[in-house]
Hints:
CATH architecture: 3-Layer(aba) Sandwich
Shape: globular
Protein name: ThiJ/PfpI domain-containing protein
InterPro entries: Class_I_gatase-like (IPR029062), DJ-1/PfpI (IPR002818), INH-QAR (IPR052158)
CATH class: Alpha Beta
Number of strands: 11
GO biological process, one term: regulation of DNA-templated transcription
Amino acid sequence: MQIAIVLFDRFTALDAVGPYEMLSRVPGAETVFVAERPGAVRNDSGSLALVADRALADVPAPDVVVVPGGPGQSAQMENGELLGRLRAADAASTWTTSVCTGSLLLAAAGLLTGRRATSHWLALDTLRTLGAEPTGERVVTDGKYVTAAGVSAGIDMGLTLLGRIAGDEHARAVQLLTEYDPRPPYDCGSPEKAPAAMVETWRARSRFILT
């Protein structure tokens, strides 16, 4: 099994690394970071780089595709080369997945039309304009498409998919060994739980309000 995690300039690191930490533990699987061109790809703050060992063109038929999100996603929405490669990979994949605003790239490629999907809560309306049926769920599975909400939800998506691929017992063992037992110090992780004024402040600042 080959798992391809797509990188692009200004991706969000946890969007890619969270699923990697779960899915790289599929027995016998090869996990590879890919981009339009091999080499270092900087994250959204510019302070961290992951290395794409191969170009998208060199990994034409992965079994699993993972598309992270991040501020750089906006600049990729009309990148015909990237969207075309995503469509080609999807044609061969067993699972096509995303984290955060990575689902907007899948939708822009025409892969989520009429499908239930999720994204970062600030991007759900944009997801609808691209033909998907957005939900506020943390992880959504519709056929072979598995989408995760914002950033940290990629860990949940990866663990969910790990269970589907390698079985529940293996996924439980990975959860135990990675000690994934989140107990955040604040109960403010969704717009339903956060103070209304805070939610509105971030809505007003969102890059999605004009899209």
